[in-house]
Amino acid sequence: MKSMTPFLMFEGRAEEAILFYRSVFKDFEVVFINYFETGDMKGKVMQSLVNIHENNIIINDASITHDFSFTPSMNFFIECESEQEQIDLYEKFKSKGSILMPLDDYGFSKQYAFVTDPFGVGWQLNLSE
């Protein structure tokens, strides 16, 4: 295997997601972004590669309509280095997303939260011990 990279396929909101993730994460970079140049998808994200804290993620807008979307069963698990980092991420995600499990002690973690962003992508936020 050469590589394995998460691939997030949006329905016309990829650029909005990229801008949101840029506002959430301090260590965020758009490696490249290409747009559709013609047709109904003109101006939408054909393909992009972003990097969040040394983790590549491919983001695009679907060029065809499909009957599926994001589900919390597939999500990103973030080990936060500090309580303040975790609180900052939690506040940013919950401001426009939804809370599946509020920030709390759940036994398996002294401080943990599970949220979705405004696009339905799930994020688990765990405080490293």
Task: Describe what is shown at a glance.
It contains two helices and eight strands; from the N terminus they run βαββββαβββ.
Structure overview:
This protein is of the alpha/beta class. The chain has helices spanning 14-24, 83-96; strands at 7-10, 28-35, 45-52, 55-61, 75-80, 98-104, 112-116, 122-127. A four-stranded mixed β-sheet has the order 1-4-3-2, covered by helices on one side. The longest helix has 14 residues, at 83-96. The termini are far apart.
Give keywords.
four-stranded mixed sheet; 8 strands; 40% strand; elongated
Write the layout of secondary structure elements.
Elements: E1 7-10, H1 14-24, E2 28-35, E3 45-52, E4 55-61, E5 75-80, H2 83-96, E6 98-104, E7 112-116, E8 122-127
Parallel strand pairs: 1-4, 5-8
Antiparallel strand pairs: 2-3, 3-4, 6-7, 7-8
